[in-house]
Every structure is written in structure tokens, then in C-alpha cells.
Amino acid sequence: MEQFYQVLTWVGVFLYWLMIAAVTMRVVFKRRVVGVSLAWLMIIYIIPIGGVFAYILFGELNLGKKRAERAKDMFQPYEDWFQRLTDCPGHQPHLMTEHARPINDLCENRLGIPALSGNTLSLQDSPQTILRSLIDDIHDAQHAIQMEFYIWHPGGLADEVATALIMAAKRGVNVRILLDAAGSMRFFRSHWPKLMRHAGIQIVEALAVSPLRMFLRRLDLRQHRKIVVIDSHIAYTGSMNMVDPAYFKTDAGVGQWIDVMVRVTGPTVAVLNSIQAWDWEVETGERHLPTLPDCQLPSSVDAADMIQVIPSGPGMPDEIIHQTLLLSIYQARESVVITTPYFIPSENLLHAMKGAAQRGVSVDIVIPDKNDSLMVEWASRSFFSELLTAGVRIHRFQGGLLHTKSVVIDGNHCLIGTVNLDMRSLWLNFEVTLAVDNAEFTQQLSWLQQQYIADSHPVDAKTWHDRPIANKLFEQFFYMFSPLL
């Protein structure tokens, strides 16, 4: 019997070694960013069995068989739709500035989506302004409303939005809402879905979370886009979820969330509508490709309203927003100002920011002083010393959880949308960013960023260097996991 147990033990050890070897080879042959591969190998070796199990669940970008098949069938019709945008009068590549043209070339070549002019933009920088504007537009809606959000949290003005949508549906407006199942869990457990569906509103859970599907699809893959389209005429996108900050995470100890949204009219609305239609079809199989924009341009057109829509995530070209960020920073000649709630840059982004500062460009990064993710907060701090040494200025915002995701380059070109500066946003989730070539709008965003900086404490290099050794150890520990956060 003792010999039997010895044989059983050796067989178990061999099978465990075989499992570790197989997963290790899979990690290596995926040829991802080196830091991501090393982080996964560390987890697999340090946590017996559990590390392998975690990799199977979260280690690879698996959208699920049904969604992947739908996306594959969708490529051609959507590619044809985007290609026809080049015939729109709003496609004026010769009017682009030197900052916008390389980004347009990158997105046209990789995404097939051209930048379009003939738009109007309004920067809305407070929850009350955003939600009141949205409610007014919903009340004026005549035909259709499409929405998608990562989080819908009941309470306050968010409930007024829900009431306005119910009223719109009852007067015959076609309303479709796509919400991430994990982010909007509180909403789906409330009474609102039943009320809305009873009024005729279509509500779909994106990427439903279920233990039964854990081996069929990556569970932490999330629908992180925020898009509203009303009557194919007005669109909103930006960092704000469908929440009233006065009622959202009030016990988290980080203050109210600070967000912005961009209200857009013009041909770019149809492009945002097509991204929402893509997400809806991937989830439901129903096709609602919008009509092409009219692109009726004013008699005097310049590049002051050129917008490039850049979606990313499964089904989109790899790293497209990451590439756009790098390109924008490398083009900077005078200044780069970045605001982000979650700051865990890739190695390439880190080098780009350091390189910009070292060649004399003014680089400012504004992040929340307190974060709702402890792991992200400690991992973020691990980059401070390297950036401060290179001459980058880091500002810790005191007025709440700064959730605005924005980049302003040289005061005349900007990126604004849903993307955090972390690996999850840049490589995993469904995201959307606007590259805006509009001096007036960019100046408004720049002024807002300066208000954030005025309400921040700068990180002093000497004081930071003298922080407790325990803090440094915590930072380095979480830094090892930063490629996965």
C-alpha cells in the first residue's frame, strides 16, 4: 500500500509539472508585452493550482464563441459602411493640422474610420450640467434613443433620466439601452428594468457574469464605453457613467466622482452611433447600422471641428488607442497634460512621457489623491520616482475622485473619452476615445485641466524620496502585478 501511495504521489507531481509546463508554454508563445507575461508566470509559480486556474479564467482575451462568430460576420458590412464615410463632404483631410493628420492616417489605415469635420462640440464638466442637458435632449427626442454605459447606478438625477426615457418610450420613441452586467449590477437588481421594459424600452445586459460561463469567456472583459445617441442628431461620450455622484459610492472615502462629457452634433454622431450598433449586434445579433451622415457643411469650413472616433477592444485592431496616445505624446513640442483616475502606464507610455519631459516638453499628470482601488493606488505610486526624476510633474487632485480621462497636447489638440491609463483599458475593455482637432474646444479642456491642477497638491521629488520604507515595499509589491491591473 505504501508503494501505491508513492506511485500516486509521483503521478500527481508529474501531472502538476505537466500542467505548469503547458500553461508556461502558452504564456510564452502568446508573445504579449514582456511585463504581462512575467506577471502571469509569477502568479502561476507562486500560487499552486490557483495560478493556473486564474490564468485559464483571466489570462487570455476570450470574447466567447458566439460573440466572436458574430463579430467575424460583422466585419465586412461595417468596413463597407466606414469606407463610405470618405465620400462624405465632412471628410476634409487637407484641412487637418500637423497634429491631426498622423492620427487620421493611423486610424484610417488600421480602423478604416476617417476623421470628419462639420461638427459642433460642447464640453460639459459637472454632473448636474451633464444630466440636465441629457434629460432635456431626451424630452425633445422624436424617433430613437440609444445608450450604453458601464455603470448605471440608481438614485438622484439618474432616476430622472430613467423617468425621462420611460416618458419618451410611451410617446413612441424607440429606446435601446446596453449596460455592462457587472458594472450595472445594482441597476439590474432595482425596480427600474421592470418599469422600463413595461414601457417598451429594450434593455440588454452586456457580457453577463455567470459561473457557468467562466470557462467559455473571460469574465473580467467589460463593456466600458459610454455613448448616448438621440435621433441620430445628438451624441454624448466621455468619462461619466449614468450616475449621480451625490448617490454613488458615498461611503468609499474618496469624495464625489469628477467627470466630463462631450455633447456632439454633426457627422461624427453617425460614427458614434455605428460603434453603439456594433456593440448591440455583438451582444444580441440584431443589426441597426445607422444611415450615413448628411454632412451638410457650412459655407466656411476649416479644421476647427475635426473629430476622429477611435474605438478599441475585442474585434478592433490591437492597441489602437495605445498607439494614438504614444503618437500624440511623441508629437508634443511644448506641453502634455494628462488626467486619469487610474494610472498604470505601459512601459512604452512611461518611456514616452519621460522622453517628452527630458527633451524639454512640459509634462503634467493629474490623478486623484485617493483612489477607490487600493491595488491601483499603490501600483500607481511605484512609477512616481522614475517620472519625477525625468522632470514630469505629478499632481494629486484633492476635490474628489478625478475620473476625467483627457490628454491635451501643446494646447491645440486633445484626446478625450473613456480610456484610463492602465493595461485593462488599453488592452482589454471595450473603449472609445475622440481625437479632437479643435483649438477652441481644446482650450476649454485645457482650462478645465488647469482648474484640476489648482485643486491639487504637487508631489515634491525630495519629500517623495524620503517616504517610509514600508511604502516603498508596498509599491514594489503591487508594481509586480501592474501589467494585469
From TrEMBL:
It is an enzyme of class 2 (transferase). Its EC number is 2.7.8.-. PROSITE patterns: PLD (PS50035). The gene is cls. It comes from the Bacteria. This is Cardiolipin synthase A. Coiled coil: none annotated. Keywords: Cell membrane, Lipid biosynthesis, Lipid metabolism, Membrane, Phospholipid biosynthesis, Phospholipid metabolism, Repeat, Transferase, Transmembrane, Transmembrane helix. It is a multi-pass membrane protein. Pfam families: PLDc_2 (PF13091). It catalyses: 2 a 1,2-diacyl-sn-glycero-3-phospho-(1'-sn-glycerol) = a cardiolipin + glycerol. It is found in: Cell membrane. One of its GO terms (biological process) is cardiolipin biosynthetic process. The lineage of its organism: Bacteria, Pseudomonadati, Pseudomonadota, Gammaproteobacteria, Vibrionales. Belongs to the phospholipase D family. Cardiolipin synthase subfamily. ClsA sub-subfamily. Catalyzes the reversible phosphatidyl group transfer from one phosphatidylglycerol molecule to another to form cardiolipin (CL) (diphosphatidylglycerol) and glycerol. The chain crosses the membrane at residues 7-29, 35-58. GO terms for molecular function: cardiolipin synthase activity.
